[in-house]
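Thread: Newbie trying to understand structure tokens

Hi all, I'm a second-year student working on a class project, and my supervisor (Dr. K.) asked me to get a predicted structure for one chain before our next meeting. I've only ever worked with sequences, so writing a 3D structure as a token string is new to me. If someone could post the tokens and maybe explain what I'm looking at, I'd be very grateful. Here's the chain:
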Amino acid sequence: MTQHDFFDEGYPAGFFRWLSNNRPIYEAFSVKARAMAQHRKHYSARAIIHVIRYETDLRDSEGTLKINNNWSPGMARLFMRQNPEYEGFFKCRDSQGLDI
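---
Reply by user tm_fold:
Sure, no problem. This is what the structure looks like when written as tokens:
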């Protein structure tokens, strides 16, 4: 599957460009999503992003982390695409801000 195929499935415009520069954030998102899936049937991608933001702010006194809530749909979709056993864990819907 090519990167273009992902865009056809409703990822936010610019998501993969952001992802290429922020892979550790996505990896942290994946770890936290897997952990939460042990306790919940469904969860909020935005809630996970807020936790990552909070934890990172505690460690990063310079405030260099930049994570926009607009990336949460992309991270949720990519996580479920890469981990089919978690399909449906995040509720995804169409948004006007998507590049489809």
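A couple of things are worth pointing out once you decode it. Residues 23-37 form the longest helix (15 residues). The chain has five helices and no strands. Feel free to ask follow-ups in this thread.
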